[in-house]
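Schema walk-through. Below, the input block comes first and the output block second. Nothing else is stored per chain. Lengths vary across the set, and this one has 302 residues.
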Amino acid sequence: MYMRDSVLPSIIVSVSILVFCSQVNSGPFSDFKAPELSEEFTSAPTAKWETPTSKSLEQAKELLDPTLSENWSQVRDDYLITGKVVFDDNVKVIMQDFVEEPHEVSLVVKIPDYLQSIQEFVLLIENNPIQAAARIYPHRPIETVGMNVRLEDDSPVRAALKDKFGTWHVGSKMVFVKNPGGCSLPSCDPEIQKCVTGEIGKILISQFNREGGAWRVKTKITHPMDTGFVIDDNGEVVPSYYIDRIDFSDENGSIAEIETYAALSTNPVIMLDFPTRGQNIRINVHDIKGLQFEAMEPAPSM
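--- output ---
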């Protein structure tokens, strides 16, 4: 059932933390690199990329319409978006309208007050060869989720949130890619760039005190997140190798368990906003080779 709802209100590696940051009232995008994020459902491609027209906006509405989508029905079945589904305009998927660099695309999902105690959160990129980026099982209310993802080509990006009654609330955003290949082309060209792998498993944590006692946690994890679709210079497929689990916890127990996929960018970033402040944060990471990494950081001072 589809509804449109715009009214409903093993090796363990210990990694020391190298970055700590406490900031009061940090804005929703202050620690993401993309400067121009939009919460409009889209601006569609025209002769001038930056200037949407009424015709192009209508085109984008059609591309977002799940009843017209070639992939939505299959994606929904594959990722267990079962039962009642509400397309909810209050679930805001905030991204750039037009993407130049498809290997690392910042996004933020704003969760309305009435959905902050969700059971599950799934981020889906409908036209990607790897359609799921992350599946989150929160153990505390969450206000905002942020991450960096890959986009292979133009695609609806959908955030599906399961409420306590089992209803899925889906927010959507149509994003257009000027240079396709975020999943199938190398993210670094050694002929024009200095390509540095970095220390796999290195974890950076930033924490921010926010207005009204709210709390933001952001982590960046050094990892190639290889998709299995890239061909190297010798014509060989680079095997898939990615983080498949990230767990957030503190002294009061689990905060969120996250299943992750290679649709996340190289050196993935995850950001979570909570309405109340936690204690000392611990992040545990696991990848598909069985490597495990962990990091701890005290909560920021008030």
